[in-house]
Amino acid sequence: SVYKISELAYYVKSLEEYYPLLHKLINELLPAENFYVGIFDESNNEVVFPYIVDEIESPEPSKLGPYPFGKGLTEYVINCGASCLLTMKEIKELENKSEVVLSGPMPLCWLGVPLKTTENKTIGVLAIQSYNSKITYNKEAEEILGFVSTQIATVIYRKQIEEALAIERKYLAERVIERTEELSALNAELERAVRTKDEFLANMSHELRTPLNAILGLSEIMLKHKDISENDRHRRALNTIRESGSHLLNLINDILDLSKIEAGKLDINIEKISVEHICQNSLQFVRQQAIKKNIDINVEINDCPEEFWADAVRIKQILINLLNNAVKFTPSTGQVGLKVNSDYNHEVLYFTVWDTGIGISTENLNRLFKPFVQVSSSLAREYEGTGLGLSLVSKLTEMHGGSISVESEVGIGSKFTIALPVRNPSNKKEITLSDDERIAINSINHAFIIEDSNEDTEKLRYFLDKMSIRSTVHIFETNMLDSVIEAMPDVIFLDILLWDKSGWDILSTIKKHDVIGHIPVVVTTVLQERPRAIALGADGYLNKPYSYHSLYESLVKVQDKIYRQQKNELSNDMGAQLEMENLPLILLAEDNEANLETLETFLEFGGYRVVIARNGKEAVDCANEYQPNLILMDIQMPKMDGLEAIRLIKSNNKLNEIPIIALTALAMPGDKERCLSAGANEYVSKPVNFDTLMSSMEKLLGKN
Fold it and tell me: What is the rounded (10 degree) CA torsion for 509, 510, 513, 518?
């Protein structure tokens, strides 16, 4: 039994499992029907009884406590630090001396030994007791219990530590899970906030641009009116309106640019730029303001490359911001300059804008490039501005792989230096199309652009020019339909958020028009409304900001449509219309645009006519209207899934003979059976093998 007690520690997992087994083994050594373990919690000065069996108070194993450290027999042994063998008489004597206080029945014989670890730390008491005069304990029993107590104490102490560690690990694991859930919720909230902010900015941009465009446009028209142009007072008032509107429009553009940069959505379109050209263009924007203040502008372009590689629009934005600030903060009769030089060894180009203005104090230099911050409240009152300009300059410079530095002295002036990499052409490929890539869109030579953002228009025209596609931009004061009919372009690019009317209405009008309805329309927008655009007849969809590559891919798809239209026209010219009408009509129900376009092209080249449905409800309606020869039905679709659509079609006596092939990416056991039980004649899993699909179609159509 002693050996078993020593081995017990190696195969029990917990103290809860250990105590009953220990009791059993002790009972094999000594009469121990009444047995308990008391554990001393020194930190809380408490005693707990994790295991107790007492024929009077607790016949079944139970747990008691914790109790405050008192004057029981257990506490008496802990205080003595030695084993105690007591008879009832001795217990009563201790009670009379107030050394112990018993709360329960008094045993005839009681034996308790302290549980001491190898470090001589008392962690509790092991006790046996008897209420039967035939069962008593002696010194031999005391020695046996004392002998095993050290082993028992070591096991209990080690298990206490292990269980404490397990509890701590569990707690930490729970905290990790809770924290992970909190972080996941926080990330979801941040994503929602970013999404909300983007939607807000897009909507506010539209809502603010709409009245501003009207204000700017009407003020421009009124300024051209003879009666107004000859009236100095009216002309000054209108010029104030126009200048204020332009200021607000620039502010909106700055806020949007800053938001795009922070969201990582601002594209930098690298191209070869003339140093001289970019400098003169930028200076042109501030010359009039400088003349009004009688400020001299100096330009100095030293020995440097004639061209460098950067985004022309953004570099001009950087220089105009710096030059505007220089003129604004320089008093009348002062000087402003733009100096360009380079370090050929490092292939770096330096643009320095300097002035003889008010200067900036040393303590304010570190705050210059923070958004919405101006260097002092007094300056904010004296000089207009939002504090966005220099923040944009800094971020745009960083996006070009460059850096910005500033030197300034109050009352003397400031000098801002932009360092930009020259970017050797061998390291940066210019945007061009290969001959094969141009052939892929060779039917597209003229594009018509309906867009109210000058920045987006210029970007699109730049991309199209690189593809050798000329472009015509719609002037909003003219009739849109007349302009498109006059231009008769190969493709139309349509923004949805226009200032004067809904782009959705324009898309619908174009697609229903007899003369221009065949012209492919590519929707360009910040909105996430692709299904709506396609449903209204759009032939392509580009989310802003889009890349040169995504624009090209969209045009390749447009070219395919033009090719199919030309093929149909050629067939009509050859008198093949009757034959086309006799070709099997296929109803293709599919909501994924990429799959839809692929399958439609395959079917048309395979000699079939095609009707399109983009959800289950449309599929049922089209089946009733066209009564096709065969239906290809995707299963996972919006509004009504494919299975429900199949059931409705098969329940219609006029349609139930039409063969249906279920097309689905589902591949779980039982999916095929569900499709067939709904009424499908065949089941083809995605990705579709066209030979398999053609074979199934021919079998169902009875084609040779």
Answer: -150
- 3-class SS at 351? strand
Rounded CA separation 426/92 (Å): 104
d(C-alpha 515, C-alpha 523), whole Å: 20
* 3-state SS track over 313-341: HHHHHHHHHHHHHHHHCCCCCCEEEEEEE
| Residue corresponding to tokens 């002035």 | 355
How many whole angstroms separate alpha carbon 671 and alpha carbon 1?
Answer: 63
Query: Residues for the chain: how many in total?
Result: 704
Other CB atoms within 10 Å distance of the CB of residue 632: 26
Tokens matching residue 458 = 């210029």
Window from 23-37, 235-249, 334-348, 614-628 with minimum mean pLDDT:
235-249
| Whole-structure pTM value | 0.38
Pairwise CA distance, residues 355 & 331, whole Å? 10
Q: Residue 30 pLDDT more than 80?
A: yes
Mean pLDDT of 320-331: 91
Q: Exposed e or buried b for every residue in 594-627, given b needs 16+ CB within 10 A?
A: ebbbebbbbbbebebbbbbbbbbbbbbebbeeee
Measure the CA–CA gap between 405 and 390, rounded to whole angstroms: 11
Spatial CA neighbour of 104 closest among 54, 171, 173: 54
Mean pLDDT of 514-528: 85
pLDDT of residue 425: 41
Give the pLDDT confidence score for residue 651 in this predicted structure: 92
Q: How far, in Å, are 319, 568, 575, 600, 607 from residue 581 at the CA level?
A: 63, 12, 12, 17, 11
pLDDT tops 60 at residue 429: no
Check residue 135 and give left, alpha or beta (phi > 0: left; psi -120 to 50: alpha).
beta
**Rounded CA gap, 245 and 214, in Å?**
10
* Among the listed residues 175, 172, 176, 249, the one whose alpha carbon sits nearest the alpha carbon of residue 209: 249
* DSSP conformational letter for 583: S
Q: Residue 597 corresponds to which amino acid?
A: E
State how far the Cα of 562 lies from the Cα of 488, in Å rounded to an integer.
Answer: 14
Tell how strand 335-343 and strand 348-355 pair up: antiparallel
Residue 613 CB partners (closer than 8 Å, separation 6+)? 587, 588, 589, 590, 619, 621, 622
**Helix, strand or coil for residue 524?**
strand
Which amino acid, one-letter code, is at 299? Answer: V
The three-class DSSP label of residue 54 is strand
Q: What are the backbone angles phi and psi of residue 585, rounded to the nearest 5°? A: -95, 125
Of the segments 80-94, 189-203, 576-590, which one has the largest average pLDDT value? 80-94
Per the model's pLDDT, the better-predicted residue between 614 and 196 turns out to be 614
Strands 630-634 and 660-664: parallel
The whole-angstrom separation of Cα 139 and Cα 143 is 6
Strand, helix or coil at 686? coil
Residues 461 and 489: beta-carbon distance below 8 Å: no
Residue that the structure tokens 């409705």 belong to: 648
664, β-bridge pairs: 685
Residue 381: pLDDT band (50, 70, 90) is: very low
Element (H, E) at 60: strand 58-68
From the DSSP assignment, how many helices (H) and strands (E) are in the chain?
25, 23
Q: 407: burial class by Cβ within 10 Å (0-12, 13-18, 19+)?
A: middle
